[in-house]
Task: structure prediction
Amino acid sequence: MLNMIKIRFCNLRFYDRLLLLTIQEGMSKMVFVSEVYAAVPATCDTPLQEKVYQVLQELEIDFQRVETEEVITMEDCQQINERLDMDMVKTLFLCNRQKTNFYLFVTSGDKPFKSKEFSQALEIARVSFASAEQMDSMLGTKIGAATIFSTLLKDAGKVQLVLDKDVCDQEYYGCSDGTTTGYLKLKTEDVLKKFLPYVKRQPKIIEV
Result:
């Protein structure tokens, strides 16, 4: 009987430790998200980020934004979604095998990317992810910060813009401001009818 009590006690301590580790792991994934701002940042970290806010002001596009710790994955964006009361888009930088054709694909944040479906929708060969070096040189961002606003840059003129129809149907558009520490909430209509005409871009809209 005494041995059984000891076993139960040991098991209890094991599950307590397991629970604590689980809680600590969850806490470690918490990302700092600032209060919501409706004005441009006091300082900008990259040339693209500075250009983004200049153009938003020029086009009189209303926005809300938050500042964060570095955010890379869509899972990390969940707290941003909650603070801004919208869903972040997923922006992927893709290329063909020869690295001669490039695509900036904007889709829903919770939708898995399937290369085969994307390629079939565009009637092209299978694509893969472009490199971090190509992202930096063509989009002016690093991994985790890909954004539709990279179309402001000259080198992004070589990149075909592709939008998921589901994104176009949403009321709000949430994306990076060109960094992994700044995120925006805008009206999708403003992105489609004000910003894209400004950069003279006619996106390919697909259903996947």
